[in-house]
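Section 3.1: Structural characterization of target chains.
Under the original work plan, the team committed to producing a structural model for every single-chain target entering the pipeline before any wet-lab resources were allocated. The record below documents one such target. The sequence was received from the expression subgroup and is listed exactly as submitted; it comprises 266 residues.
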Amino acid sequence: MGPSEGGAGGPFSEVRLVWPLVNFKRALVVFAHPDDAEFGTAGTVATWTRNGGEVAYVCVTDGSAGSNEPGVRRDELAPIREAEQRAACEVLGVSDCTFLGVPDGMVEVTLDLRRAITRQVRRFRPDVLVAPDPSRLWDEERRYINHSDHRAVGLACLAVVNPDSSTRPMFPELLDEGLEPFELHNLWIPTWDGNVDTFVDITDTIETKIEALRCHKSQIHDWPVDEWIRARAKERGAPKGLEYAETFGTFRLRQADDEAQTEEET
């Protein structure tokens, strides 16, 4: 779909309307906690997998700080949250989910974290990397301060994009594992403000998104998550006349060879 009328402002001035058939055969979604991806991108992920795409997840933390209930221990909660995330992957058709095991609430942008994410990028070699927004400090209503783990994972992913994944001298030990450098073509960042340039129609997959979220029983409890998700998705789709949407700021970092050939021929 070509550019649509009206810009979103900010650094992403061109607004695109992305329909369900998106040209990504392989997508890697990196996030901080079990359930983060379901809240942010599950409708898009379900769209990609329904249309034959392969999606893999990288969950950076163990989710062990996901309860304030007295007596709940980290070592008891972590396996519960991993099982919930794997159940959500089954619902969405996600082919693989890697857990890096960083203690929940303690993520820092270290070389170890950059190496671990780079390993997964070089292994999976995706057409698009989906990563958290490292610049988001709070929400527009100023009622929520963004979790430090989200920001740290986003910053680590930017380092993976450049220089880590594509540069041979970075982490030469990965070469010993047979993981050659890989240059990412696309970076998508879920966002909800003036940085939006891409709207994904999730009208056909919103029920799948809600079903995947409900797998996170330790977090959802009796919260009417379906109402909240529909309200947010409706709000995000409204500017482009979509019933339900997820929104992104996107970077086209390198043109694929087949795309370049197509443009030359036209």
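The CA atoms of residues 148 and 164 lie 22 Å apart.
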